[in-house]
Amino acid sequence: MDEEKRITLRLPTDLHEWLVTQTKSTRRSLNSEIVYRLEAERNAAMADAESP
Questions:
Q1: Between the CA atoms of 16, 21, 23 and 25, what dihedral angle is there, to the nearest 10 degrees?
Q2: d(CA 23, CA 21)
Q3: Cβ contacts of residue 33 below 8 Å, gap of 6+?
Q4: What is the pLDDT of residues 19-37, one digit of tens each?
Q5: Contact criterion met (CB below 8 Å) for 23 and 30
């Protein structure tokens, strides 16, 4: 990541709790988990867009 932006993010409590649970199993920070999942979704969307 060349550049980073700081944002304030509001999440529903249940989604936050679920993400925290995921961070424990993946041993990532909450921030890293969110970035990982967003990047994975972006890559999947880009692959779908490239498919005929």
A1: -160
A2: 5
A3: 19, 22, 23, 26
A4: 999 999 999 999 999 999 9
A5: yes
